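User:
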Amino acid sequence: NMTDAQFDELIEQEAFDQGTKVAQIFSGIFFGGLAAWLTTANGGSLAFVQRAALEKRLTVCCFINMYVAMFSTFFNIFQLTNVDDAILPTNGGFTLDLARPIEWVLTCPLMQLSLVLMGGAKLPDYRRYLMPSFSIAILLSGTTAAFMLIVGLKALMFILGVILFLTMASFNRLQIMEYSSGAEGFTTGDSEFRKATLLLLCTWVPFPTWFALSTEGFGVITNVLVIQVGWAFLNIVSKFVFIFYIQRIKDLYCNRLKTKREINGSGKKMYALGLAVECMVPCHLQISRWVAK
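Assistant: Predicted structure:
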């Protein structure tokens, strides 16, 4: 049995821990809000970016991917704490790290936004809001399904998420057709925009499958280590493949553009040099050349 002093000490320690968590959460919210405000104030209009030259659009896409990497870093480290732990009501009380779905809610919409900006003015403006919204709705459906106690409701939310994913994929296909003026689709075409879209979707397809197999879904796989390693592997592959491919597109395009500008610049310099040499020739020699012709 605990003494009154030990009991009071336990209460004080718990109050201290709770106060620390609240302070950290509020600090994170305020600094996150500050970062969002700075991005909005200094990032320019997304409508303007979508209509800008490809070089500008690719630069902004890489800038967005930098946020994806930073958010992923922070929330993966945050999963090491106990602040985000949530006990699921089914499958033996599995502990879910809420930082993981929060990370995806903050990063996956940005990846869809990058595709819209990369597509440029050929895509309607409302896609900048629709495509990220699809990602958020899919993730919220999956997270809600994880907390469902009744298997039927869990299956219903899972099916809703799958339907939303298929609908999102159909809009991605439509964007490929719009970008190529109807010349490309999922199975035909060779544009970089089509390849980037297919890379994103193909690396996202295993996520609902792994969710259904894991303890968060229907409990086919119950080994915690296997589940966590699986999520980490899928997360790393999907983001690294997409981010590196967008960066590669930007680097190749900028190198081609730089070479073209250097060639054009050299041509203009040679033309100017020719004019200068012509001006240096004495007038009587120029007249003699003209008469000879």
